[in-house]
């Protein structure tokens, strides 16, 4: 998929754990993990807004378009 999710990068920059971020944005650990690993098929604007607020960033810091991106193998 050419959309790369960089939630983990922003979490590392803010020194924030998955549990802490999940609490701040009111998401379950499972749902946040799915989003973080790029396995989510969609994201609500309200969730994107909450992530940006919690991580003090812009949507472009979390999502990146790379046309020829190679999918990560889990």
What's the quick description here?
With 74 residues, the chain is mainly α. The chain has five helices and two strands; from the N terminus they run E-H-H-H-H-H-E. The chain starts with a strand and ends in a 9-residue tail after the last strand.
Descriptive labels:
2 strands; 8% strand; two-stranded antiparallel ribbon; DNA binding; single chain; 74 residues; globular; mainly alpha; 434 Repressor (Amino-terminal Domain)
Q: What string gives the helices and strands in order?
A: EHHHHHE
The CATH architecture term is Orthogonal Bundle
Structural class: mainly alpha
Total DSSP E strands: 2
Low-confidence stretches: none
What is the CA-CA span between the terminal residues? 14 Å
* Backbone shape: globular
Task: Provide the CATH top-level class.
Answer: Mainly Alpha
H/I helix tally = 5
Strand content: 5-15%
Summarize the biggest pleated sheet.
2 strands, antiparallel
CATH superfamily: lambda repressor-like DNA-binding domains
Q: What's the Cα radius of gyration?
A: 12 Å
- The portion of residues assigned to helices is 40-55%
Lateral arrangement of strands in the main beta sheet: 1-2
